[in-house]
Design brief:
The complex is a heterodimer of chains A (185) and B (557). With 185 residues, chain A is an alpha/beta fold. Chain A folds into two domains: 3-141, TIM Barrel (Alpha-Beta Barrel); 154-185, no CATH class. Helix content of chain A is 30%, strand content 17%. Chain A has helices at 33-45, 84-95, 113-119, 131-138, 156-165, 179-183, and strands at 3-5, 8-10, 15-16, 29-32, 50-54, 72-77, 101-106, 123-125. In chain A, a hairpin with a 2-residue loop joins strand 1 and strand 2 (8-10). Chain B folds into four domains: 11-114, Alpha-Beta Complex (Sulfite Reductase Hemoprotein, domain 2), CATH 3.90.480; 140-295, Sulfite Reductase Hemoprotein, domain 1 (2-Layer Sandwich); 311-404, Sulfite Reductase Hemoprotein, domain 2; 418-556, Sulfite Reductase Hemoprotein, domain 1, CATH 3.30.413. Chain B has 18 helices and 21 strands. Chain B has helices spanning 11-32, 38-46, 70-83, 106-114, 147-158, 231-245, 256-263, 265-279, 288-297, 311-319, 321-330, 358-371, 394-404, 434-443, 447-453, 516-530, 537-544, 547-556, and strands at 50-52, 57-61, 67-69, 87-90, 96-101, 132-133, 173-176, 190-196, 202-208, 220-227, 331-333, 339-344, 355-357, 375-378, 384-390, 418-419, 458-461, 475-482, 485-492, 505-506, 511-512. In chain B, the strands form four sheets. In chain B, strands 16, 17, 18, 19, 20 and 21 form a six-stranded mixed β-sheet that branches. The chains are: A alpha/beta (185), B alpha+beta (557).
Chain lengths: 185, 557
C-alpha cells in the first residue's frame, strides 16, 4: 500500500509486528493497541521507536501519558464513511499534545483529505489514483475555514475580528471589502 | 431594491462557496469519467444536496433559517426554469427541492446559486444539516431574541466541519427564540430554546435526542441554561460524543436519539458535560464582538410609522367574507403596531402542498419588494411568509396573492396539510402522499367549513421515515405497503406546540387509499359533535379519548 506524506510518496520504514511475534531489540516497530497495553513497559524499554495502531473504538485517552514516547499512531477508517477516527485524531493532537506521525489507514479517499489535514493527520495509506496530486493541493483547496483546529489556520471569524480591529491587515489575510460592503446593511 | 435585514455573505463566505462549487465540478467530472464509483460519489453528491430519486436527480437547496431576499427567490425561480421544469417544492426543513436536475447540470446550477450567496451544502448526507428556525423570527410579538443570529453562527461552524462530516447519520438542529415554539425544537437531534432566566440573562435550553422517523422520540433537556457564548463548545462536545459513540452497525439505530435512549439521558449528560468541561473557555468561546457583528446584520428594518387601525381594511373585512377569513387565519401579530406577518398559503385547494412555479416565485418576490421589505420566509409547514406587512397594505397584498393562487385562507386549518413528496418522487416511499393530501384538500375545500372546524393539523408521510412529520399531526397519516397495496395508518393526538409536544397514537388498522377521506370526515364529525367551548380538535381528542373516534371511523370505512 503506497504511503503518502505532503512531500510525496515515501517508503514505509515501520515494521508491523503481529501480536504473537517476539519484540525485536531495535528497529521501528508498529504494534496493535492490544499488544501495546500488554507489553507497554517492554516496548518502551527498547532502543528503537514505537508506534501504535488503533481501532476507531479504542480509547485514545489511555495514551495520555505516553504521547511523547510514541513516534507513530495509525488510526483506522474501516470504511471511508465511518468518521470516528477524525475525533480520535483531534483528541490526540489538541488535547493529548501528540506530535509524532499521525497516519490514516483503511478507507482513505482523496476527497477526505481537506478534513483529515485539518484534524491533524500527516500521512496517508491509499491506493486511489490521483491521490498524491490531490494531497499536494488539499491544504489550499479551501482558502477559508470556519472551525478552529490544531492546524492553526485562522478562522473566518478570527480574520473578521482582526480586520475590524486593525487598519493594517495584510491583503493575503483579508481581501479588501468595498466601502459599502464593509459598512454592512 | 430594499437592503436585506439578515446576514449578508462577506468575501470569506463567498470564497468558500465558490471553492466548494469548483470542488464539486471536479467530483462530477471524475464520476462521469468513471474515476469514482457510485458508492464513492454518493456521499460527495449528497453533501452537495444532490439525491438520486425515482426518476431523476433531485437538488435540495439550503435556505438557512428559512430566510430569503426577493433577489434570492428570483434566482431560485430562474434556476427552476433553466435546470428544472419551472417549479420547485418547499420542504418541511425550509429548503427548496428541484426534482428534475441532470447530473451534468448540477455544478452550473450550484454556481448560479452562489451568485446570490446560496448553496446546497449539507442539505443531505450524514452531516449537520441546514439549521432551521422560527419562520416568524425577527417579527414575532413574543420573541425574546432573534434565533437566526444563532442559526448563522451554527451555520458557519457546521459548514465543512472537519471532524463531523462522516457522522453515523444525519443531524438536524433547530433554534427558537420564542416561548411559543414554532420550530419544533423537541423533535430535532438538537433543539435550542432561547429563554431569559431569573437573573435576566438570556441563554439556551439544550434539548438533545428528539426526532421523528421510524423511532419517534421527544428530546431530553441536557442543559437547562447554557450561556450564549458557550454554544459552539457545547455543540462540539455533543457532536463529538455522538460521532464517537453513536451506533453505526444499523442504519435505523444510528441517530443520536437512539444513543440517548440506550445509554439514558443522565449518562449522556455526564459524557457531554465532561467533554464540554475540557473545551469551555477554549477557541470556540464566542467573543462578544463576533456575536454583536452578526446580530447587527439581523437588526430589524426601520419600519416607518403606519396606522394601526385602517378604515378601508375594516370596511373590506365586513364586505368580503374571504378577506375576513384570511385575516383570521393567515395574518399574525407583529412586534410593531401598524404591521402584521402574512402567511401565503402554498396549499390552494387540490394542489400539491408546498409547490410553487417559477412565475409564482417571481410574483412572491414582487410582493415582498413592494410590501415586505424585500424579505420572504419559508415555514416548516411549507408556506411562504411576508414578515413585515403594513396593516394598510393588507388588502392589496391579499389581492396580489389571490392572483398567484396563494391567498387561500387556510393556514393552520384542515387543508393546510404537510405532506412529503411520497411515491410520486421518492425512492424510499411505500405509498403516495400528495394525491392523499389533494383529495382531503378537495373534500374540505369550503373555507367556511374549514374555519368552523378550526385549527387542525394533518400531516402525511409516504413511509416510516416520516418526512411529513405524521407523528406530530393532530391527525397523522402514514402510507404503508401491504403486499403491494398502498394502505394508510391513522394516528391522533400528535402536537409540537411548546410544552405540549406529543406523539400521536395509532387509531387502529390501516385503511385503503380511497377510504382516507371518509376516515378523516368521520374524525371531524366526531369532533364537531363532541367539542366543548373553544376546544380544538386535539383538545377534544385529549378529553374524550380515542374510542369515539375509532368507533366512527371503522363504522364508516
Amino acid at each position: 500500500m503506497p504511503l503518502f506524506r505532503e512531500t510525496g510518496v515515501v517508503e514505509d520504514p515501520w515494521q508491523r509486528l503481529d501480536d504473537e511475534a517476539p519484540v525485536p531489540a531495535d528497529g521501528m516497530v508498529l504494534v496493535s493497541f492490544t499488544r501495546w497495553r500488554e507489553a507497554r513497559a517492554a516496548l518502551l524499554a527498547r532502543r528503537g521507536p514505537v508506534g501504535v495502531a488503533l481501532a476507531n473504538t479504542d480509547p485514545v485517552e489511555t495514551l495520555a501519558s505516553d504521547t511523547s514516547r510514541l513516534d507513530l499512531i495509525v488510526l483506522n477508517f474501516p470504511k471511508f464513511s465511518d468518521g470516528r477516527a477524525y475525533s480520535q485524531a483531534r483528541l490526540l493532537r489538541e488535547r493529548l499534545g501528540y506530535q509524532g506521525e499521525l497516519r490514516a489507514a483503511g478507507g482513505v479517499l482523496l476527497d477526505q483529505l481537506p478534513f483529515m489535514l485539518r484534524c491533524g493527520f500527516d500521512s496517508f495509506e491509499s491506493e486511489q489514483k490521483g491521490f498524491g496530486e490531490a494531497l499536494a493541493k488539499a491544504r489550499t483547496l479551501f482558502s477559508v475555514v470556519y472551525q478552529p483546529t490544531e492546524d492553526g489556520r485562522a478562522t473566518a471569524s478570527l480574520l473578521r475580528l482582526k480586520r475590524r480591529n486593525s487598519t493594517s491587515v495584510t491583503p493575503s489575510e483579508a481581501p479588501a471589502l468595498s466601502e459599502a460592503e464593509a459598512r454592512g446593511p | 431594491m430594499p437592503d436585506t435585514h439578515f446576514y449578508r455573505y462577506d468575501d470569506y463566505d463567498r470564497t468558500l462557496v465558490a471553492e466548494r462549487v469548483e470542488q464539486f465540478r471536479d467530483q462530477v467530472r471524475r464520476r462521469l469519467a468513471g474515476e469514482l464509483t457510485e458508492e464513492q460519489f454518493k456521499p460527495l453528491r449528497l453533501t452537495n444536496g444532490l439525491y438520486l430519486q425515482l426518476h431523476a436527480y433531485m437538488l435540495r437547496i439550503a435556505i438557512p433559517y428559512g430566510t430569503l431576499s426577493s433577489r434570492q427567490l428570483r434566482k431560485l425561480a430562474d434556476i427552476a426554469r433553466k435546470y428544472d421544469r419551472g417549479y420547485g417544492h418547499f420542504t418541511t426543513r425550509q429548503n427548496l427541492q428541484l426534482n428534475w436536475i441532470k447530473l451534468e447540470d448540477a455544478p452550473d446550477a450550484l454556481a448560479a446559486l452562489a451568485e446570490v450567496d446560496m448553496h446546497a451544502m449539507q442539505t443531505s448526507g450524514n452531516v449537520i444539516r441546514n439549521v432551521t428556525a422560527d419562520h416568524f423570527a425577527g417579527a414575532a410579538i413574543d420573541e425574546i431574541e432573534d434565533p437566526r443570529i444563532w442559526c448563522e453562527i451554527v451555520r458557519q461552524w457546521s459548514t465543512l466541519h472537519p471532524e463531523f462530516s462522516f457522522l453515523p447519520r444525519k443531524f438536524k438542529i433547530a433554534v427558537t427564540g420564542s416561548p411559543n415554539d414554532r420550530a419544533a425544537v423537541r423533535v430535532h437531534d438538537i433543539g435550542l430554546r432561547l429563554w431569559r432566566n431569573a437573573e435576566g440573562e438570556v441563554g439556551f435550553e439544550v434539548i438533545v435526542g428528539g426526532g421523528l422517523g421510524r423511532t419517534p422520540m421527544i428530546g431530553k433537556t441536557l442543559r437547562e441554561f447554557l450561556p450564549k457564548d458557550e454554544l459552539l463548545a457545547y455543540l462540539e462536545a455533543t457532536l463529538r460524543i455522538y460521532n464517537r459513540y453513536g451506533r453505526r452497525d444499523n442504519l435505523y439505530k444510528a441517530r443520536i436519539k437512539i444513543l440517548v435512549h440506550e445509554i439514558g439521558a443522565e449518562k449522556m449528560r455526564e459524557e457531554v458535560e465532561a467533554e464540554y468541561a475540557e473545551m469551555k473557555d477554549g477557541a470556540l468561546k464566542l467573543p462578544a464582538e463576533t456575536i454583536e457583528a452578526i446580530a447587527r446584520q439581523f437588526a430589524p428594518p426601520a419600519l416607518p410609522h403606519r396606522p394601526a387601525v385602517v378604515g378601508a381594511v375594516e370596511a373590506l373585512k365586513l364586505e368580503d367574507r374571504d378577506f375576513a377569513l384570511w385575516l383570521k387565519s393567515n395574518v399574525s401579530p407583529h412586534r410593531m403596531a401598524g404591521y402584521r406577518i402574512v402567511t401565503a398559503s402554498l396549499k390552494p385547494a387540490g394542489a400539491p402542498p408546498g409547490d410553487a412555479s417559477s412565475v409564482q416565485m417571481e410574483g412572491v418576490a414582487d410582493i415582498a419588494d413592494a410590501y415586505s421589505q424585500g424579505e420572504i420566509r419559508v415555514s416548516h409547514e411549507q408556506n411562504l411568509v411576508f414578515p413585515h406587512v403594513a396593516v394598510e397594505d393588507l388588502p392589496v397584498v391579499w389581492l396580489a396573492l389571490g392572483r398567484l393562487g396563494f391567498a387561500e385562507a387556510n393556514v393552520g386549518k384542515i387543508t393546510d396539510i404537510i405532506a412529503c413528496p411520497g411515491l410520486d418522487y421518492c425512492a424510499l416511499a411505500n405509498a403516495r402522499s400528495i394525491p392523499v393530501a389533494q383529495s382531503i384538500s378537495n373534500h374540505f375545500a369550503s373555507l367556511a367549513r374549514q374555519h368552523d372546524i378550526g385549527d387542525l393539523k394533518i400531516k402525511i408521510s409516504g413511509c416510516i421515515n416520516a418526512c411529513g412529520h405524521h407523528h406530530v399531526g393532530h391527525i397523522g397519516i402514514l402510507g404503508v405497503d401491504k403486499n403491494g397495496v398502498e394502505l394508510y395508518q391513522i394516528s391522533l393526538g400528535g402536537d409540537v406546540d411548546f410544552g405540549k409536544t406529543a406523539l400521536g397514537t395509532i387509531l387502529g388498522p390501516a385503511v385503503a387509499a380511497d377510504k382516507v377521506v371518509e376516515a378523516v370526515d368521520a374524525l371531524v364529525s366526531t369532533y364537531l359533535e363532541a367539542r366543548g367551548e373553544g376546544e380544538r380538535f386535539v383538545d377534544t381528542y385529549r378529553r374524550i379519548g380515542a374510542q369515539p373516534f375509532k368507533d366512527r371511523v371503522y363504522a364508516a370505512v
